[in-house]
């Protein structure tokens, strides 16, 4: 699940020339967290994904689909 959304976020940032630091500041997370997630050393938390969806509405459909659509059996009801 999360690898797909991480790839989508990375493509979006590259296409829109947004640096990792700028992205992290915009969503309100420490840049080290994005670095760990980007290099697949850490899974994105629901709070991280919610913050991304709130800050970048154009990514919201992909995040919602990834979180709720593809693996319904594993999704929490939070």
Write a brief caption for the model.
By secondary structure, this protein is an all-alpha fold.
The percent range for helix content is 55-70%
Give the overall silhouette: globular
Strand proportion, as a percent range, falls in under 5%
Biggest beta sheet attributes: none
Rounded radius of gyration (Å): 12 Å
The overall average pLDDT, rounded, is: 88
Number of strands: 0
Order of helices and strands: HHHHH
Helix tally? 5
Distance between the termini: 17 Å
Uncertain segments of ≥5 residues (pLDDT<50)?
Answer: 72-78
| Class of secondary structure makeup | mainly alpha
Structure overview:
By secondary structure, the protein is an all-alpha fold. The chain has a domain at 26-67. Helix content is 64%, strand content 0%. It has five helices and no strands. The chain has helices at residues 2-15, 20-27, 31-38, 46-55, 60-69. α1 runs antiparallel to α5 (60-69), α2 packs across α3 and α4 runs antiparallel to α5. The chain is globular, with a radius of gyration of 12 Å. The two termini are 17 Å apart. This is Transcriptional regulator.
């Amino acid at each position: 699940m999360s690898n797909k959304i991480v790839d989508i976020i990375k493509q979006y940032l590259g296409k829109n020339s947004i640096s990792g630091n700028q992205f992290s500041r915009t969503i309100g997370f420490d840049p080290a967290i994005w670095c760990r997630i980007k290099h697949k050393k850490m899974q994105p938390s629901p709070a991280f994904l919610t913050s991304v969806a709130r800050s970048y509405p154009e990514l919201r459909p992909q995040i919602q689909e990834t979180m709720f659509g593809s693996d319904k059996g594993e999704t929490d009801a939070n």
